[in-house]
Specification:
Structural class: mainly beta
Family: Belongs to the PAP/fibrillin family.
Helix content: 10-25%
Distance between the termini: 28 Å
Strand order of the largest sheet: 6-7-8-9-10-13-14-15
CATH topology of the largest domain: Lipocalin
Largest sheet: 8 strands, antiparallel, barrel
CATH architecture of the largest domain: Beta Barrel
Protein name: Plastid-lipid-associated protein 8
Keywords: Plastid, Signal, Transit peptide
Organism: Hibiscus syriacus (Rose of Sharon)
GO cellular component, one term: plastid
């Protein structure tokens, strides 16, 4: 299982058309107005303005009368094309938004590429509200459920791969961080839907800088039914804590995978 969880090597288009003003009929008389609108790019502002020349009629010599001239309003069209998602700037709203996007997605397995991008956008906004030194924040301790990973097969390794999911149904993925430096990871699953099992690891946490931590894990322990045994060797992972509060914790692996943890209990 080469991933950040168990191995060091794997740690609207919105179109808005706004017509400003009214398309008024041309004024009576010999003057007419034909607006010409053109849109050839994702953002276009087109307008046409024709000003009729005033007409003069001489009723008496040297006595000129100026007729009243009516000018139609300019007509403008705005077109905005963007794939960006409207994102709130309040941390509480951002937390609610990211949780709504990742809940009931099998850890991100069922999301489309565009939906993964939306999760990343919200995570980037939340990163702006991260405390200066999250590795020293006591909020990192506790029991956390892994509710999302941008690389869904990363937590759980082979058990979470496309082939592995045919036989192993993931029940929960939990990370427990205890002061001062203890980390325990556990993936619970069922085999063929009736035989329960789990993979667990224990590790030691080491602070690398203000945001990055390193965890060195012992060899994984596998339990299936009454059978229990260890396999593999030690592994290490590096993780950047990009946001943490009372509800969620965001992390990014050394290879760029985004993780969303939700506090349990």
């Amino acid at each position: 299982m080469r991933n950040w969880w168990f191995k060091a090597t794997h740690i609207s288009s919105l179109v808005l058309s706004s017509h400003v003003g009214n398309h008024l009929p041309a004024p009576s008389g010999s003057h007419s107005y034909h607006p010409s609108m053109a849109a050839s790019s994702s953002f276009t502002l087109s307008s046409s303005f024709t000003r009729p020349k005033p007409s003069f009629f001489a009723s008496k010599p040297f006595n000129l009368s100026l007729t009243h001239t009516s000018f139609p309003l300019k007509s403008q069209t705005f077109r905005v094309s963007s794939s960006a998602v409207s994102i709130s700037s309040r941390p509480d709203d951002l937390v609610a938004s990211i949780l709504s996007k990742v809940t009931q997605t099998d850890g991100g397995v069922t999301l489309t590429p565009n939906q993964h991008q939306e999760v990343a956008q919200v995570a980037n906004e939340l990163h702006k509200y991260c405390v200066d030194e999250p590795v020293k924040c006591p909020l990192i301790f506790g029991d956390w459920g892994v509710v999302y990973c941008s690389n869904p097969t990363s937590p759980g390794g082979g058990y979470r791969s496309t082939f592995g999911r045919l036989f192993f149904k993931t029940k929960e993925m939990v990370q427990t961080v205890e002061a001062p430096d203890s980390v325990r990871n556990k993936v619970s699953f069922s085999v063929f839907g009736f035989l329960d099992g789990q993979v667990s690891l224990k590790g030691k946490l080491k602070v690398l800088d203000k945001q990055w931590i390193q965890v060195i894990f012992e060899s994984p322990e596998l339990r299936v039914g009454a059978m229990e045994f260890r396999y593999g060797g030690e592994s290490e992972v590096k993780l950047q804590i990009t946001y943490v509060d009372e509800t969620i914790r965001l992390g990014k692996g050394s290879r760029g995978s985004l993780f969303v943890f939700r506090r349990r209990g």
